[in-house]
From TrEMBL:
Entry-linked InterPro entries: Acyl_CoA_acyltransferase, Gcn5-rel_NAT, GNAT_YJDJ
Taxonomy, superkingdom: Bacteria
Gene3D superfamilies the UniProt entry points to: 3.40.630.30
Name assigned to this protein: N-acetyltransferase domain-containing protein
Annotated ranges, domain N-acetyltransferase: 33-123
SUPFAM superfamilies reported for this sequence: Acyl-CoA N-acyltransferases (Nat)
Naturally occurring in which organism (per UniProt): Williamsia serinedens
Length: 123
């Protein structure tokens, strides 16, 4: 019996840690979609809707401005960087469309202060 335990212990010690974290896998399975009909961006993980970012649009001096109103995730998906994934998708849309963003949402405001590469698109 003792030999069996030693064999199991050696097998356990040889196991490598996973090459990817659960957070990394969630990000790979996630997709940001723009739902213009509902004025929101949606975050899907493995095909399931898990979060939304609502916005309004206005024209300010001939430039399109997206006002980010709120970012919401289902509770079980918080704490894995998915709100950042959603926000990054929205900000990339803003950059690509030549628009600006007005962050009313506290999460988006915080994100912009911690990611200076997007500071130029903020109003």
């Amino acid at each position: 019996m003792n030999d069996d335990l030693e064999e199991v212990a050696m097998h356990v010690r040889r196991k490598k840690r996973p090459e990817q974290s659960a957070q990394s896998i969630l990000h790979q399975l996630s997709e940001v979609r723009h739902n213009a009909e509902r004025d929101r961006f949606e975050l899907y993980v493995a095909g399931d809707l898990v979060g939304v970012l609502g916005y309004s649009v206005e024209d300010v001096g001939g430039q399109k401005v997206l006002t980010v109103l709120h970012t919401v995730l289902y509770d079980e998906f918080t704490g894995h960087g998915l709100a950042s994934r959603l926000t990054t998708g929205v900000l990339q849309y803003v950059v690509d469309s030549g628009a600006r963003v007005r962050p009313v949402c506290t999460f988006t405001r915080h994100f912009l202060t911690t990611h200076p590469s997007y500071a130029a698109v903020a109003v």
